[in-house]
Prior knowledge:
Layout: H1 36-41, H2 45-56, E1 59-64, E2 67-72, H3 75-80, H4 92-98, H5 109-129, H6 131-146, E3 154-155, H7 156-173, H8 180-197, H9 205-208, H10 210-234, H11 244-250, H12 255-285, H13 288-302, H14 309-312, H15 316-329, E4 335-338, E5 343-345, E6 348-350, E7 355-358, H16 360-363, H17 384-392, H18 402-418, E8 422-426, E9 434-435, E10 441-442, E11 447-452
Helix pairs in contact: 5-11, 5-18, 6-7, 6-18, 7-8, 7-12, 8-10, 10-12, 12-15, 12-18, 13-15
Amino acid sequence: MLDFAIFAVTFLLILASRQASGIPGLTPTDEKDGNLPDIIASSSLHEFLVNLHEKYGPLVSFWFGRRLVVSLGSIDLLKQHINPNRLLDPFETMLKSLLRYQSSLNGDTGESHMRRKLYENGVTKSLQSNFALIQKLSEELLAKWLSLPEAQHVPLCQHMLGFAMKSVTQTAMGSSFEDDREVIRFRRHHDAIWSEIGKGFLDGSLDKNMTRKKLYEDALMEMESTLRKVTKERRGKSFNRHVFIDTLLQGNLSDQQILEDTMIFSLAGCIITANLCTWAVYFLTNSEDVQQNLYKEMDRVLGKGPITHEKIKQLRYCRQVLCETVRTAKLTPVAAQLQELEGRVDQHTIPKETLVLYALGVMLQDSSSWPSSYKFDPERFNEESAMKNLSLLGFSGSQECPELRFAYMVATVLLSVLVRKLYLHPVKGQVMETKYELVTSPKEEAWITVSKRS
């Protein structure tokens, strides 16, 4: 998912206009807003970029306010991009700027690196310590589905978001979120916040609508209050299960930094995990062969026993299914960096302090990189070149962000529980439309049915 410095950053940096260095693209539609009206008219940033790259090619430019933006729409151009930035967490710069947490936009590079390592270690330790918990939550969802009549439609998005919320809150903040009432409160606040920042840029409309603004600010205040309470309760104490916030408390962070990092993991972890699980199950319902191949691997590697940390590495086909889910769903369709030093791409100069977008949703559907790109085909990742492309885009390997790593693990455990006990079926006649935001989701509820394996 590469390093984010998404559009909200432009509200925090005041820079002069620049020439587009001959890069093809749009001139500003509005003197003040640039091409923001065009983005809004396209319904999403991803759809705007799809149209822009179709018209002008793999390297394009447009304007966000008075800032020049350059978008890369092919893997070949991404390889050429020379941009020796300091590395930031993929969601950190983006979400913190949208939430008006400004600490990640400035400051010492060494301190930023230390803080990122602490964050990554927090995710790793919390997964190890809470592996049995994730299994338990998966088994609870299985029991719920087994109790339903076979023909009953299952609201997949609703159930996956609930499952993700429980997994993330208990893994991040501990046992107080074993109470379903706390999870419901968290979900209400999470939804109110994400509904405003999820599209990845601020268009000014929030400040003009007092009802929306109050709902958002109240939800953010309640979330922050909850995080401060958890921090106070766990500081200097020992618990049976190590959770994400415990790692932050062991580091040399201020209370504000702990609050910010826990907020980011809670928001990003929930939305990425929920939608990875949703799309994975949905694609399996529409591909009997893939579902059967996954069942065979699970049966061969795990038998009748539970999944373990050690055996996860043996579930190679399952990882291919999840990688293909990320690719086909275009799970995070846009990423960006600030060009801190002057760079070059395809004979064009990218001026210093230009906002550079990676149109990941465009690249993930590029038929020159992915044969039969619109087909859900986990077998494509038998090829080393396909996995290298995915890694280059930041969805695998060393550039994989901590939230996606968490989601991969949770989704693997969930599939190991569901697929060995259930057949997953599509609902006939359902037309799935997609909502493209920072994380891609179904536009409406996705319905499935299930039946018990004999």
